[in-house]
Amino acid sequence: MNEENKYKPNKKQALFIDLYIDLNNRLTLKQICKEVGITRQTSWNWFQDQNFTDYLNSKRNEILARSQTARMLVAVRKALSGDFSFS
Predict the structure, then answer these.
(1) Is 36 in contact with 12 (CB distance < 8 Å)?
(2) 21 found inside a domain
(3) Euclidean distance between CA atoms 62 and 68, whole angstroms
(4) Helices (H), the chain
(5) pLDDT digits (tens, 9 = 90+) for 1-45
(6) pLDDT at residue 66, rounded to an integer
(7) Residue 73 domain-assigned?
(8) Residues in Cβ contact with 11 at an 8 Å cutoff, skipping those fewer than 6 apart
(9) What pLDDT, on the 0 to 100 scale, is given for residue 1?
(10) Of 11, 31, 47, 57, which residue has the fewest beta carbons closer than 10 angstroms?
(11) 86 with 75: CB under 8 angstroms?
(12) At a CB cut-off of 8 Å and minimum separation 6, what does 67 contact?
């Protein structure tokens, strides 16, 4: 995504993205669409939009990076205390 062209999702898209990338969410795509108040066709249309998918992927990457950093910090703390069982 070009930095000059910052994509801003609408409210339904933002909610959809939050639910879709939530690591603790166990909802199906159909359930997410129902929660957001859209059809599966609408979600499909959104996924055809490169700006939407770039934005979704950047948000997913942010979450994964935070998760990985947190797990690494836990592993380092455990190792410093002599515990080398990492999970």
Answers:
(1) yes
(2) yes
(3) 10
(4) 11-21, 29-36, 40-47, 50-80
(5) 444 458 999 999 999 999 999 978 899 999 999 999 999 999 999
(6) 78
(7) yes
(8) none
(9) 47
(10) 11
(11) yes
(12) 23
Whether residue 35 is contained in a domain is answered as: yes
Are 69 and 79 within 8 A, CB to CB? no
Tokens of 6: 């910052």
Note if the pTM is more than 0.85.
Answer: no
Q: CA 41, CA 35: separation in Å to the nearest integer?
A: 15
Structure tokens at 76: 């380092």
* Domain count along the chain: 1
Which residues form the domain of 75? 11-80
Residue 59, burial from CB neighbour count under 10 angstroms (0-12, 13-18, 19+): middle
pLDDT tens digits, one per residue of 71-84: 777 778 888 888 87
Is there a domain that residue 6 lies in?
no
CA distance between the termini of the chain: 34
Q: How far is CA 74 from the centre of its chain?
A: 22
